[in-house]
Amino acid sequence: MHALEYILQNMGDAFVHLNRNWKYVFVNTKALSLMNKKKDDLIGMEIWEVFPDIIGGLFETEFRKAMELGVDRSFEIYYDTYAMWLEVRAFPNVKGLSIFYTNISARKFAEEKNKENEQLIVKAILNAQEKERYLIGQELHDNINQILAGTLLSLAMTNHSNANQSSIHIQESMEYINKAIDEIRKLSHRLSPASFDNITFSDAVHELIRSFNVNERFMFRVNIDENINKGINSNIQLNLYRVMQEQLNNVLRHSRARIVEISIYHKINAVAMRIYDNGKGFDPAAIRSGIGLNNIRKRVESFSGTFTLHSQKGKGCELLIEIPI
């Protein structure tokens, strides 16, 4: 066997050579395996006879262009007959056309999977935004709107009251306004911080906890590594903050817990966060499609992190995440 033929026969890519009449004159072992053909099925046969399904498609268009114009052609195609993605490179020469085939199915399927994951992340983010808008609208309508309505009523009563009663109504109105300001501040904090430029991460976490615990419904145990304030990328800080927001919402609405523990700390090449509550717990398999936990999972995965959830009915819930740094 000549040296060139030996190289072509043992190369990693499938390789065939067609003469000027489109007949197979050489087919290497990789090509036979890829096409699931025997050598006698191909040598001396026209490509259009062996593969009539490629006539009129991209294969024929590119091969004829290469042969007739004398130009190299390269393209990717999904070949239904063999249910695979191929990278095809065709090189014309005086004797015919040399064609290399590479099976790129694994890469293409991985790209498609990544695209699907990106779409899921976008959908999760949009769902979270819609959910947050709904909650803000609810707060504005059911709480702040009622406070302002009470203020308006109290002020209106000053027109029909004596000086002493008017003073009382004005004082009530001031209290209502201060309450509305406080409620708006807490509501605004649920949307912020958009960054931690003017506040440390630790301070933002403690402020978030205060906003969730206005009635001292929960006993919080918080442990935050102070190095997180400066040693962690601001995007990761914000992601941790949003995960905590989502999980605290879950605790507030569903857990019936009394104790909530939050720990955020450095590990080797990673930052880890643990959120535990001693509430009623649940079966994780039964709520696999829950929007809140899916939002958390997608957020963590978008930073190449890991998400672990431990919970049982009657035994609380523990959420563990790690994000590489």
Task: Describe the SSE topology.
Elements: H1 3-10, E1 14-19, E2 24-27, H2 29-35, H3 39-42, H4 47-50, H5 58-69, E3 73-79, E4 84-93, E5 96-103, H6 105-156, H7 163-191, H8 201-212, E6 219-224, H9 228-231, H10 234-255, E7 259-267, E8 270-277, H11 291-302, E9 306-311, E10 317-324
Parallel strand pairs: 6-7
Antiparallel strand pairs: 1-2, 1-5, 3-4, 4-5, 7-8, 8-10, 9-10
What would you note in describing this structure?
- The model has no long low-confidence stretch (mean pLDDT 84).
- It is built from eleven helices and ten strands.
- Helix 6 packs antiparallel against helix 7 (163-191) and helix 8 (201-212) packs parallel to helix 10.
- The longest helix is centred in the middle third of the chain and has 52 residues, at 105-156.
- A hairpin with a 4-residue loop joins strand 3 (73-79) and strand 4.
- The chain has helices at residues 3-10, 29-35, 39-42, 47-50, 58-69, 105-156, 163-191, 201-212, 228-231, 234-255, 291-302, and strands at residues 14-19, 24-27, 73-79, 84-93, 96-103, 219-224, 259-267, 270-277, 306-311, 317-324.
- A five-stranded antiparallel sheet has the order 2-1-5-4-3, with helices on both faces.
- The protein has 325 residues and is an alpha+beta fold.
- Helices cover 51% and strands 22% of the residues.
- The protein is elongated, with a radius of gyration of 33 Å.
- The protein has three domains: 3-103, 2-Layer Sandwich (Beta-Lactamase); 106-191; 195-325, Heat Shock Protein 90, CATH 3.30.565.10.
